[in-house]
Design a protein that fits this description.
Family: Belongs to the class IV-like SAM-binding methyltransferase superfamily. RNA methyltransferase TrmH family.
Radius of gyration: 19 Å
Structural class: alpha/beta
Function: Catalyzes the formation of 2'O-methylated cytidine (Cm32) or 2'O-methylated uridine (Um32) at position 32 in tRNA.
Subcellular location: Cytoplasm
CATH architecture of the largest domain: 3-Layer(aba) Sandwich
CATH class of the largest domain: Alpha Beta
Number of domains: 2
Number of helices: 10
Subunit structure: Homodimer.
Number of strands: 7
Order of helices and strands: EHEHHEHEEHEHEHHHH
Keywords: Cytoplasm, Methyltransferase, S-adenosyl-L-methionine, Transferase, tRNA processing
Length: about 240
């Protein structure tokens, strides 16, 4: 299960933080490291800070966009220190770990961390279903990125070992991947423009539709039903 948990570092500035994050992951049994547009990688500083986790650096995947990085993931959670303009349901670390480990039994999942200086942008957060915030001193809540990776990786490791002793009462539902959800949004926008429901520059309406679908958490079958409805609408547009 832990092999399905992906740690994604977005636009990391200092290579040493990549190495420290890799070390944090390996101590908690995680191995899937993905880097989105790192400023400086590979780098000796990353290898130095990784200590015995240089194998994770060697196997890390590098992507040009977060869209690519989460395409095959069914659950994506953004780590943020504070609320952003793109509102998402908030989870504490324990609840985030429970959600990730449950979904990871069937498919890849992702936890995303933003760059050291500014954190994740709204364009990054829109790829997530939830956001997780690590409780900290409200007067100084800025947590080093590698420390955040360590904290949340520990919660995932702890939850994984708890779940090993629990027999699930009902099978987990089949969730759509991030790429499939994005195709739904693209299809929805295309149809809404054809029926002239959406006008140019109505980005806020699509953002609210994204919120609606994210809150509803449709499974793969429900997503296919929505796509089928959109396809039928297209066929009947005159």
């Amino acid at each position: 299960m832990l092999k399905n948990v992906r740690i994604i570092l977005v636009r990391t500035f200092h290579p040493g933080n990549i190495g420290s994050a890799a070390r944090s992951m390996k101590t908690m049994g995680l191995s899937d490291l993905c880097l989105v547009n790192p400023r400086d990688f590979p780098a000796q500083e990353a290898e130095k800070m990784a200590a015995g986790a240089t194998d994770l650096l060697a196997s890390a995947t590098i992507k040009d966009s977060l869209t690519e990085a989460v395409a095959d993931c069914t659950v994506v959670i953004a780590s943020t220190a504070r609320p952003r303009g793109y509102d998402l349901p908030e989870l504490d670390p324990e609840a985030a770990a429970e959600m990730l480990t449950s979904a990871a039994q069937q498919s890849p999942v992702a936890l995303i961390f933003g760059p050291e200086r500014m954190g994740l942008h709204n364009d990054d957060i829109r790829h997530a279903k939830y956001r997780v915030t690590i409780p900290a001193n409200p007067e100084y809540s800025s947590l080093n990125m590698a420390a955040a990776v360590q904290t949340l990786s520990y919660e995932i490791y702890k939850r994984h070992h708890t779940e090993q002793s629990i027999t699930p009462e009902t099978p987990a539902k089949s969730l759509p991947t991030s790429a499939e959800v994005e195709m739904l949004f693209e299809h929805t926008e295309q149809v809404l423009r054809k029926i002239q429901f959406l006008r140019p520059h109505q980005g806020e309406t699509m953002q609210r539709i994204r919120h609606l679908v994210t809150r509803a958490e449709p499974d793969a079958l429900e997503l296919n039903i929505l796509r089928g409805i959109l396809t039928a609408m297209e066929k009947n547009i005159k």
